[in-house]
Write a structure and sequence with these properties.
Length: 381
């Protein structure tokens, strides 16, 4: 069966009055099939609809024809076809935001433990000669001093941050992939790495102040609220305190997201066709890609966290790395790695699996809508 390329609705128009068509057809809305929607249509005329980009390279059939949208009752019986009418950006933003918020809330206790382990040497300067704090010791300390709620301390700004962070990151990755695509339409390994790095830096830059707030809430004692911590930082340290450690953050997130997303895409691409659409396949590839990326990039995350702390002795990444190694040894760069791995693996897996599943559903919905519209076209011809 030939495929019609269907594009997401940006505006609706009634069809021009057809000469032999029955009266009821004139009252129906139509969806125009066109090109790829890259700004202008054929012949220099602006396209009527913004294209869905999930199915790239679809066969263009029936150029210049108009396809009638199925009746509402028929669309209700085919919910996936209705999903194809949702703007692509809205669906992907929603999926990324929801998946990120759920994943972060589930793994919040491990994140709090990791932050305490990472910043221990800065927090206890002058109070203790102990170089580090253990995983179980950090868990016990939180429970003893703050109770059960302490494990989720700082989670609210994290969830507030992760909604736009995940949405911007996943959506911008798709945008950057188009930018770095070669003229022949293929995306090289370098192109995937560059797209991932740009997506990671874009999302980090947009949400960085909330990340600093989350850290201060998580590691500072007391029961201050997010607004209180923000006002204290602004009064005592100035606006620049909200961007402390931004440099190593960008340097750290760029390779992490680049490696994570690139390895995920390449592994998913190498999987046999019959397994590609299965959620367990996405879950397994996401776990492996996140593990590999975390091993490579974790030391930069430790540097970033210590530079974000109030009273940190480090001003640049070049001060921080030798300073941490001198004080804690090479192991100091990997403090908190175990809880971070336990947190990041399910977190990244949930996020990437949800995003990949939504992309599959969008593609399936588009095919379903194409089929319905083609069947209606054949009935009327």
């Amino acid at each position: 069966m030939s495929h019609w390329r269907v594009e997401a609705c940006d505006s609706w128009r009634p069809p021009p009055p057809p000469s032999p068509s029955p009266p009821h057809a004139q009252a129906q809305l139509v969806l125009r099939a066109g090109g790829r929607g890259r700004g202008r249509g054929r012949g220099g005329v602006a396209p009527m609809f913004a294209a869905l980009t999930v199915r790239e390279g679809a066969e263009e059939v029936g150029k210049g024809k108009q396809l009638q949208l199925p009746p509402v009752a028929e669309l209700v019986r085919h919910p996936l076809a209705m999903l194809a009418l949702v703007p692509n950006s809205v669906a992907l933003f929603g999926a990324g935001a929801a998946a990120g918020a759920v994943a972060k809330t589930i793994t919040a206790p491990l994140d709090r433990v990791k932050l305490l382990m990472q910043t221990h040497s800065v927090r206890v300067v002058g109070e203790s000669t102990k170089k580090g704090i253990g995983f179980l010791e950090a868990i016990a300390e939180i429970g003893k001093e703050e109770g059960l709620k302490g494990y989720w301390k700082g989670n609210l700004p994290q969830v507030i941050r992760i909604v736009p962070y995940s949405a911007v990151q996943l959506f911008s990755y798709e945008v950057y992939k188009k930018i770095f695509r070669r003229k022949d339409g293929e995306l090289s390994v370098f192109g995937r790495l560059a797209a991932g790095a740009c997506a990671g830096m874009t999302s980090t830059l947009v949400t960085y102040p909330l990340d600093v707030l989350r850290l201060r809430l998580a590691v500072e004692s007391g029961h201050s609220t997010m607004s209180q911590v923000a006002m204290n930082m602004l009064r005592d340290e100035g606006l620049a305190s909200f961007y402390g450690g931004l440099g190593p953050s960008l340097i750290g997130i760029a390779p992490y997201i680049a490696v994570n997303f690139c390895v995920f895409d390449l592994m998913k691409k190498s999987v046999p066709e019959k397994y590609k659409s299965r959620p367990e396949t996405s879950l397994a590839t996401a776990l492996l890609s996140a593990t590999f990326a975390t091993l490579m990039c974790y030391p930069l995350d430790t540097v970033r966290r210590q530079m974000q702390m109030k009273g940190s002795p480090y001003n640049t990444i070049f001060d921080a790395i030798p300073g941490i190694v001198e004080r804690d040894g090479l192991i100091g760069l990997y403090r908190g790695f175990v809880p971070n791995a336990l947190k990041n693996l399910p977190n990244s897996s949930i996020k990437l699996t949800a995003f990949d599943t939504v992309k599959t559903l969008l593609s399936t919905g588009q095919k379903e809508l194409e089929k319905l519209m083609q069947e209606n076209q054949e009935k009327m011809s």
